[in-house]
Design a protein that fits this description.
Elements: H1 2-31, H2 39-56, H3 60-66, H4 76-85, H5 89-103, E1 110-111, H6 114-126, H7 138-151, E2 156-157, E3 162-165, E4 168-171, E5 175-177, E6 180-182, E7 187-191, E8 194-195, H8 196-206, E9 235-240, E10 246-251, E11 254-255, E12 273-279, E13 282-287, H9 301-317, E14 323-327, H10 336-343, E15 352-361, H11 362-367, H12 370-377, E16 387-393, E17 404-413, E18 424-429, H13 435-447, E19 451-454, E20 469-471, E21 478-480, E22 484-487, H14 494-497, E23 503-504, H15 516-519, H16 523-530
Parallel strand pairs: 13-14, 14-18, 18-19, 19-23
Antiparallel strand pairs: 1-21, 2-11, 3-4, 5-6, 7-8, 7-9, 9-10, 12-13, 15-17, 15-22, 16-17, 20-21
Helix pairs in contact: 1-6, 1-7, 2-4, 2-5, 6-7, 9-10, 10-13
Length: 532
């Protein structure tokens, strides 16, 4: 009877949440109006970003030192002028994002998308999410900007790849135009009547790139990668064909980034967790993410489900695997609890402890509501996350104790739900392993319970608090930002450099799909199987 009542209760709760979600989406869709901003309003938002960076950002000086980013302060007058002169909301959005991307060049930093705002609004209504200075209705205003951002076709590409060599551009695929073959190796002479170098200058000066303070050299090689405006119209391209003839063609624009030639996008299985036997003595586990949807924040049964799936898989193996591969490539994170409960505790034979060091600007801690700081700690540094102590320590060299507070966070993880595996654990990582995914990888590095194999992660491991949000006062745009600096065991800054592998491998294509046949072709996996 108890189980039946529980199931009924859980079903009703789920139904209530879904009903609230539908109502919230309906309310948001119906209430989002076009903000009318004055030049002074727009300037106020840019000034707010600059002040936030000065007071709270842990990264602006580090980004200048290690990433070569220009200083945000000398650029403030330029962006104020951009904001004042913006002809409409779309142009101002480009200005604001350009300045924000300079300030947020490391760690979690992005304009929160519309779908996430809908769930934040619902969470605010239910009391699950408590964001300071963001009322229920202000999510509607933020949704306007998120939709405007997602609707704008920022990146496009042609139906063929382009190679750049010796200051010239050539097609890297065959392409048909009105029955005429444009063979691979055809030279691009002009784009929209301009030489290639002149076209690049035009794009830098007349598109959203003009509001980017970051290095724009990356657009040189792909050439045709930026849409010139909201409308998507073909490029007019003059080709010199290999036979010496010329051809002018209308080259269509395809939405999205071009990617690398022969770049493979893995077809992922529907399930979040996939367990496969690759050879008689090598097992494989693929984890897509540490959340399976927005409701995972509330209903966390998927963690237990995946843990039981792995346990069953390893029980069936009867301990025969000498090697087990956990594939964390392209895992963008989610809940840190997933990594601890599913991928660390069940592999331990004894209790382990490890320390993390995290720094936060003192001004941010003193000026942020204590209740919100506790909210940011909820999924990062509580007992649920195996934290046994948090102690303030002396800041590292070059960090002023009057401006910074550094903490030593000690975590203790105990064996629980032990898996039937006693072999060597290998964790595959790449630059798209982020956030809570990197948090797990970082923990493996500190504990030494497995070998990290591949390339540096993209960073984002959490220590003391999770990333908060930043709301611009006039426009109402809501960004997610990073206020914490985590130091890796090797002394590097996690958000800037990620977590390095124990065994670094050359970049290689991802598998076409998560199947035994394709995984056995994977260059990194083959190296693990054959002994690295």
């Amino acid at each position: 009877m108890k189980s039946q009542n529980y199931d009924i209760w859980k079903k009703r709760i789920t139904q209530s949440v879904i009903i609230c979600a539908v109502l919230s989406t309906y309310v948001m869709a119906g209430c989002s109006t076009t903000p009318e901003l004055t030049p002074e309003d727009r300037k106020r938002d840019i000034e707010y970003l600059a002040q936030w960076a000065k007071d709270y950002s842990p990264f602006v000086q580090l980004n200048e030192k290690y990433k070569g980013c220009p200083s945000y302060e000398p650029l403030l007058p330029k962006y104020l002028a951009f904001a004042e002169q913006a002809k409409d909301n779309e142009e101002f959005l480009q200005v604001a994002c350009g300045y924000f991307n300079l300030i947020g060049a490391s760690g979690h930093a992005y304009l929160i998308p519309e779908e996430m705002l809908e769930w934040c609004q619902l969470g605010s209504l239910l009391g699950i999410i408590k964001l300071p200075d963001v009322s229920y209705r202000q999510f509607d205003q933020a949704a306007y900007w998120a939709k405007l951002y997602s609707d704008f076709p920022r990146y496009v590409h042609p139906p063929f790849h382009i190679v750049y060599r010796e200051d010239q551009y050539f097609t890297d695929d065959d392409w048909q135009y009105n029955g005429t073959m444009v063979p691979r190796g055809s030279k691009i002479l002009k784009v929209n009547g301009l030489t290639c170098s002149s076209y690049l200058d035009f794009v830098k000066q007349n598109t959203w790139l003009r509001y980017s303070a970051r290095d724009l050299d990356w657009i040189r090689d792909p050439l045709l990668v930026i849409n010139e405006g909201r409308k998507i119209s073909d490029w007019q391209v003059d080709f010199l064909l290999p036979d010496g003839s010329t051809l002018q063609a209308s080259v269509p624009k395809i939405k999205g980034s071009p990617g690398q030639k022969h770049e493979i996008i893995t077809i992922e299985p529907k399930e979040n967790c996939t367990c496969l036997e690759l050879t008689e003595d090598v097992g494989y586990i693929r984890i897509k993410g540490f959340m399976t949807g927005t409701l995972s924040y509330v209903f966390r049964g998927f963690i237990k489900k995946d843990r039981e799936k792995i346990k069953t898989f390893l029980e069936c193996s009867k301990g025969k695997y000498s090697k087990l591969i956990i594939d964390m490539r392209n895992n963008n994170g989610g809940l840190p609890q997933y990594g601890y409960d599913t991928l660390i505790s069940p592999f331990l034979d004894e209790t382990v402890e490890y320390d993390q060091i995290a720094g936060i600007r003192r001004k941010y801690l003193s000026e942020t509501k204590k209740s919100f700081l506790r909210f940011l700690q909820k999924d990062v540094s509580t007992k649920k996350q195996y934290v046994i102590s948090i102690k303030e320590i002396k800041p590292p060299e070059d960090f002023d104790s009057n401006e910074w507070v550094f903490y030593n966070i000690t975590r203790r993880i105990e064996p629980r739900n032990r898996y039937n595996f006693d072999g060597s654990l290998y964790v595959l990582i790449n630059e798209d392993c982020l956030s809570a995914g990197d948090d797990y990888v970082n923990a493996v590095k500190r504990i030494g319970c497995g070998k990290l194999v591949g390339q540096n992660t993209g960073g984002g491991a959490a220590g003391y608090i999770g990333p908060p949000v930043l709301r611009l006062p006039a426009s109402g745009m809501i960004f997610r930002v990073e206020t914490e600096l985590v130091i890796n065991p090797d002394g590097n800054f996690n958000e800037l450099f990620g977590t390095p592998p124990d065994i670094k491998l050359e970049p290689a294509d991802l598998p076409k799909s998560i199947t035994k046949e394709e995984l056995l072709k994977d260059e990194w996996i083959k190296k693990i199987i054959t002994g690295l």
